[in-house]
């Protein structure tokens, strides 16, 4: 039987878990705990960033950063910690309890990051990443719905598959004009022989995105 069922992970080496659940107010693992925080924060950012990178190929850096911040922030991490009962599991000093009572939101946020590091050290990056994505699956699904327009090519493809599973949108470069350092590209998107939209931009990739947006607006 798992001692900490709400964590949804069984440790091979419980020493890692012990460090993650021992607040620095207890000197036993103070330095290790802070190192775990650092590692866990990096692993969390990497896992969410990679997921966003893979699922939103047309989102730029600013869009992806905004999505990551919406998912990973102090409030969301402390909420996850409470859901996993880390406030009950976290070992803190008597003086900390006396002066501050229950663990603060910041303490819970730190403990969640330390827990991620503990899982990584116990089982490796793949397991740690899978655990993170499972923990944040609702937030990831929500952000996907909210910013779906950031991936217009993907949305247009979903629409096209619902219309005709045998055809996908095809983007055709119609013309490129202007000097080499100021090219303007015109792209049209087709479904079969049906023209859906047109886009222009100095980048062919962005012209395709504009064409997909144009098509989606026309279909509304």
Short description:
It contains eleven helices and three strands. The protein has 220 residues and is mainly alpha-helical.
Question: What's the topology here?
Answer:
Blueprint (H helix, E strand, L loop, with lengths): L13 H7 L9 H26 L5 H11 L2 H10 L2 H4 L4 H7 L4 H19 L1 H11 L1 H10 L5 H12 L6 E8 L6 E8 L2 E8 L2 H16 L1
Antiparallel strand pairs: 1-2, 2-3
Helix pairs in contact: 1-7, 2-3, 2-7, 2-8, 4-7, 7-8, 10-11
Tell me about this structure.
By secondary structure, the protein is mainly α. The chain folds into two domains: 5-149, Ribonuclease iii, N-terminal Endonuclease Domain, Chain A; 152-219, Double Stranded RNA Binding Domain (2-Layer Sandwich). Helices cover 60% and strands 11% of the residues. The protein contains eleven helices and three strands, in the order ααααααααααβββα. A three-stranded antiparallel sheet has the order 1-2-3. The radius of gyration is 24 Å and the shape is elongated. The model has no long low-confidence stretch (mean pLDDT 88).
């Amino acid at each position: 039987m798992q001692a900490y069922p709400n964590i949804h992970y069984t440790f091979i080496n419980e020493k890692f878990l012990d460090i993650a659940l021992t607040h620095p107010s207890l000197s036993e693992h103070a330095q290790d705990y802070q190192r775990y925080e650092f590692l866990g924060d990096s692993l969390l950012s990497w896992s969410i960033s990679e997921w966003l990178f893979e699922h939103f190929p047309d989102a730029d850096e600013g869009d992806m950063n905004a999505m990551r911040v919406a998912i990973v922030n102090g409030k969301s991490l402390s909420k996850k910690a409470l859901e996993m009962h880390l406030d009950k599991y976290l070992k803190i000093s008597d003086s900390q309890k006396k002066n501050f009572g229950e663990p603060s939101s910041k303490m819970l946020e730190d403990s969640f990051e330390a827990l991620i590091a503990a899982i990584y050290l116990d089982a490796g990056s793949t397991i740690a990443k899978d655990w993170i994505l499972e923990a944040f699956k609702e937030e990831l699904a929500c952000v996907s719905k909210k910013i779906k327009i950031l991936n217009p090519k993907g949305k247009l493809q979903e629409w096209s598959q619902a219309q005709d599973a045998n055809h996908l949108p095809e983007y055709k470069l119609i013309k490129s004009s202007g000097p080499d350092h100021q090219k303007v590209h015109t792209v049209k998107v087709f479904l079969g022989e049906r023209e859906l939209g047109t886009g222009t931009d100095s980048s062919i990739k962005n012209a395709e995105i504009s064409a997909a947006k144009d098509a989606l607006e026309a279909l509304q």
